[in-house]
Design brief:
mainly alpha; Serine Threonine Protein Phosphatase 5, Tetratricopeptide repeat; 16 helices
């Protein structure tokens, strides 16, 4: 499987603690005392919210090296892989996560989303049925159900999204996750409504601004899109993806393009 091969390369750092870890010593022991798994998870969530997925993966991996049964670290890691479009990797590592946490609704839900995003709809629906039969539905479980319905049953999918949004929000916020679903199905107006609310409530998060910019661009509001993208760059200046898209959006504005040609070398 290609995901297995890749996990030895780009994603080789996604490791977990040995089943029976040896006693830590030296620098490793001091690091464990100073920075616990909860700190790594918190840092990973912050990085994820800024769209810095590679760095977030490393933070979650550090948490898992300290304890392989930390559900929040697995869920964050898998969510990042899906956001990066690494669906094979997400499925590979979801399988690994379920070895430690076989009853985790959210790990199964992200696995379901990865299957749906690969177009494996019958597998996704079967898994969603299994998740909901347990009665332990979470916002991610309902969003997974929406993904499993997909374009074929969009009305049912929208009901599932609404159920997810009605539930208490998790640390990451369900709005952005739901907006991603709508964006993937080209309902940018619905996605934009959700993202405007997310950025209103949590204006310091870069990634929702980035997603909002993409939605605005898709509906033809290039000037607003450029402003939203500038917000993303301001909040996460190290993101090359944000900077590149900001430059592209500014170039899409005829007045900006003219200004560049006239006054920049």
């Amino acid at each position: 499987m290609s995901g297995q091969k890749d996990s030895k390369g780009r994603f080789g750092h996604l490791e977990v603690a040995p089943t029976a870890p040896a006693a830590a010593s030296g620098e490793a022991a001091r690091e464990r005392e100073a920075i616990g798994p909860a700190d790594h998870v918190s840092r990973g969530q912050g990085l994820e919210q800024q769209g810095r997925f590679d760095e977030a993966l490393q933070a979650y991996s550090r948490a898992l090296r300290q304890g392989a049964h930390i559900e929040a670290a697995w869920v964050g890691q898998l969510r990042c892989l899906v956001a990066m479009g690494e669906h094979n990797e997400a499925l590979t590592w979801a399988g690994r996560a379920l070895e430690y946490l076989p009853q985790s609704t959210d790990i199964q839900s992200i696995r379901c989303i990865a299957l749906a995003r690969q177009g494996r709809m019958s597998e996704a629906m079967a898994l969603s049925d299994k998740i909901l039969e347990t009665g332990a539905a979470s916002p991610l479980a309902w969003l997974a159900r929406a993904w499993a319905h997909g374009d074929a049953r969009m009305e049912a999918a929208e009901r599932c999204v609404n159920k997810a949004l009605e539930m208490p929000a998790d640390a990451q916020g369900t709005g952005s996750e739901a907006a991603t679903f709508y964006m993937a199905h080209e309902n940018h107006a619905a996605a934009l409504r959700l993202l405007r609310e997310v950025t209103r409530q949590r204006p310091a998060l870069a990634h929702p601004w980035y997603l909002q910019a993409l939605c605005l661009e898709a509906i033809g509001s290039v000037d607003e899109a450029a402003q939203a993208m500038r917000n993303a760059v301001r909040l996460a200046p190290d993101s090359r993806r944000y900077r590149d898209d900001a430059h592209r959006l500014e170039g899409a504005n005829p007045l900006v393009s003219w200004w560049r040609r006239m006054f920049r070398k």
